[in-house]
Amino acid sequence: GDSVTQMEGPVTLSEEAFLTINCTYTATGYPSLFWYVQYPGEGLQLLLKATKADDKGSNKGFEATYRKETTSFHLEKGSVQVSDSAVYFCALSDRGGTYKYIFGTGTRLKVLA
Amino acid sequence: GAVVSQHPSRVICKSGTSVKIECRSLDFQATTMFWYRQFPKQSLMLMATSNEGSKATYEQGVEKDKFLINHASLTLSTLTVTSAHPEDSSFYICSVTFTDTQYFGPGTRLTVL
């Protein structure tokens, strides 16, 4: 079945460092791909999405490109801030009509001042 | 993106009582909503799909008689945890679907004493 694999955390970076959080997927069809962010004690916020191969999603300095050939959707940011400290989830959407998501396990990011 | 509210944000109850959690879609009508459960430092576990005007579809292993879901209108779904026990303590999150994107509520922290 479909699956999403995220890199293990926690990831600890200094402020202004470059961030990459790896996400790879397996899917039988052509899913939509998403990154969500969760701050402590809150629900998930949509960070960015991509619906087809070679699409690039971007928001708040974060970017991810839908790579069909490597089945990847890695999240990147050029210069992280302390306020980016959170848990990041990669997800794919089943396009079979159920709209269910398959989530990765989440990657905790801690940015130090 | 869509705005989703949940009420209450926190609830503490005694073992054996029932607790109702509301999920509201504030800016569009949602025929499909999802209910998730999240344990500390873990990913989201899909409990059920809430369908407006019909019975909810539960994931394998989720007791439908314990977690009652009612989706009586296009903007409201409720999750009732019946005869709650301490092991039901968790963070419950709902989401609404717009096209293939899910928008999440802020979550409800349930503590059963």
Notes on the protein architecture:
The complex is a heterodimer of chains A (113) and B (113). Chain A is an all-beta fold and 113 residues long. Chain A is 0% helix and 50% strand. With 113 residues, chain B is mainly β. In chain B, the strands form two sheets. In chain B, strands 2, 4, 5, 6, 9, 10 and 11 form a seven-stranded mixed beta sheet that branches. A four-stranded antiparallel beta sheet of chain B has the order 1-3-8-7, with no helix packed on it. In chain B, a hairpin with a 5-residue loop joins strand 4 (32-38) and strand 5. Chain B is globular. The termini of chain B are far apart. The mean pLDDT of chain B is 93. The chains are: A mainly beta (113), B mainly beta (113). Chain A binds chain B through residues 32, 34, 36, 41-46, 49, 51, 89, 93, 95, 98-101, 103-106, 108, and chain B through 1, 4, 6, 32, 34, 41-44, 46, 49, 93, 95, 97, 100-107, 109.
Topology record:
The complex is a heterodimer of chains A (113) and B (113).
Chain A: E1 3-6, E2 11-14, E3 19-21, E4 23-26, E5 32-38, E6 44-50, E7 56-59, E8 62-65, E9 75-77, E10 86-93, E11 101-103, E12 107-112
Parallel strand pairs in A: 2-12
Antiparallel strand pairs in A: 1-4, 3-9, 5-6, 5-10, 7-8, 8-9, 10-11, 10-12
Chain B: E1 4-7, E2 10-13, E3 19-25, E4 32-38, E5 44-51, E6 57-58, E7 67-73, E8 76-81, E9 90-98, E10 101-104, E11 108-112
Summarize the structure.
The complex is a heterodimer of chains A (113) and B (113). With 113 residues, chain A is an all-beta fold.
Tags for this entry?
heterodimer; A: 113 residues; 4-stranded antiparallel beta sheet; 12 strands; B: 113 residues; 7-stranded mixed beta sheet; globular
H-E order of chain B: EEEEEEEEEEE
Number of helices of chain A: 0
Query: Helical proportion of chain B?
Result: under 10%
Helix-and-strand structural type of chain B: mainly beta
- The count of strands of chain B amounts to 11
Most strands sheet of chain B? 7 strands, mixed
Instruction: Describe the sheet with the most strands of chain A.
Output: 6 strands, mixed
Count of helical segments of chain B? 0
What is the overall pLDDT average of chain B? Answer: 93
> How many runs of DSSP E, i.e. beta strands of chain A?
12
Radius of gyration of chain A: 14 Å
Low-confidence stretches of chain A: none
Classify the beta-strand content of chain B into a percent band. over 45%
Q: Report the average pLDDT across residues of chain A.
A: 93
The geometry of chain B reads as globular
> Termini distance of chain A?
41 Å
- What is the straight-line distance between the termini of chain B? 36 Å
Mind telling me the C-alpha Rg of chain B? Answer: 13 Å
Helix content of chain A: under 10%
